[in-house]
Amino acid sequence: MSNVLITGAAGGFGKLTVSALVKAGHKVAGTVRDANGRNKAAAAQLKELGVTVVEMDVTQDGSVDQGVSAALSRLGGIDVVVNNAGVGVLGFQECFTTDDWRKVFEVNVFGVQRVSRAVLPHFKERGQGLFINISSLLGRMVVPFYGPYNASKWALEALSENYRVELGQLGIETCIVEPGGYPTSFMGNLLRPSEPARASSYGAMKDMPDAFFNGFEQALAGNPVQNPANVADAIVALVGQPRGERPFRTMVDKMGMGAALGTYNAQLEGAMKGVFGAFHIDHLLTVKTDAKPQGR
Asked: Mind telling me the catalytic residues?
């Protein structure tokens, strides 16, 4: 069984994944922002499950460092990090200000980098560790009205690709989970643009973001097999697989997007192997399962 640190544990995929991990016998530390304030009830529910609740704001360096330190101390070590915390958007890309974009990237990209950097010295000392980064099928393609979110998940994919090839020979594994759209609390907390008035210049299209979102919610309601528990199960399955045998990308979708993008992912993996082979660095695409621990 593994010691798992998961960010964004208060709701959505995080809460479901925490429950599934505990049920599978893993020890879990779940991060919650404002655990003694607006998320006090969620933190209490996690504690009832036997989860170690860690206060953490992934947008703040000091908070991440303190949270990781607390998790290491209370769990006695960390084997797996699930970078799950994320924020979505809805609106015309033009209407989002630079500050809006920063809010999205602070969580979806920089937050992952902060947590990863904070944990990496521990992973290196052990000569092993697993990062599971929760991306999205919108990190492989775009749909309208999710612009900053699309871009942040594309960036997360690249960040994960780089960690994969830079850390694998140290025994540290990186995986990506790519869910489609699911009916979770994430959908109800989407960031709206700070300058919505600019949408008036889109004429007949100006009301399309809300119409598109409402149509998607109806599609989700009519497709009960698109159950968010599928994502939690996929994460638990990755944690349980042997080192070096885990797939780099795992798509979780039952609405057709995953099936359409599977070939794309397979082609990219083939291209990576071809290019890395040409430069004689294809060994970087594998995880060294007998890596020696590295000192600080």
From this structure: 149
